[in-house]
Amino acid sequence: MRLRDKVIIVTGSTMGIGKAIARKAVAEGAKVIIHGLEEDLGLAVVQELGGENAKLHIEEISVDGATQRLVDLAINSWGHLDAIVNNAALVVPSNISTTDKAFLNRVLEVNTIAPFQLIQAALPFLTKSHGAVLNIGSVNAWSGEPNLLAYSISKGALMTMTRNLGDALIRENGVKVNQLNPGWVLTEKEIERKREHGLADTWYEDLPALYAPAGRILWPEEIAAAAIYWLSDESGPISGQVIDLEQYPMIGRNAPKDTSTIPNK
């Protein structure tokens, strides 16, 4: 087991990528803190994983003290902390006309500032365990789509923070900090967003090759499989790295000429 006896906080893990990472971590021998806003879904995840392997904390991640309470729960439950996964995020459409200061601040609070605060709260314990931070970003960090402005800004900031702390913390604390940038992933929320756009629940079964060269988009379990390497000792001292997980190059690819057929990712 690649994560035997490691204690890991996974934010935003009541569904989607976070849930997939928590499942895979427990399968590899870890104990996990499940976090999110949906108590019914969180309880179901804990029941699936077993109370001896998972504890639940329901709270908005940007609330004052929330990140410290997550760390306290991990320490009170198992006595140590080996890794954190900053996965919780607001994925909300906006552009230059619809993004005001309050909206941008809100997205940054959840997607960038809260991950920073969780790293701060966890750092004393991660230093003891020579642990790991894994930030879950997005390929939108590189520039993003016109209607994902605030979200893209927040993920770009997260990426810079990963590279900065990845250098500083491995030197000063022995803690590695890395980031995964997933592309288009078939999560429950993504299905819900497309339903709100008027698409059928089967929209993902017939996507243009432009968006899905392999014939489908990514599954949460595929992101989780990649996450285990960076949370485990297998990745050694590698730190400050950002890894894109998409089925086509994010830099240097020709821009699509017609984006009207598919709503935003």
UniProtKB/TrEMBL annotation:
Transmembrane segments: none annotated. CDD domains: SDR_c. InterPro entries: NAD(P)-bd_dom_sf, Sc_DH/Rdtase_CS, SDR_fam. PROSITE patterns: ADH_SHORT (PS00061). This is NAD(P)-dependent dehydrogenase, short-chain alcohol dehydrogenase family.
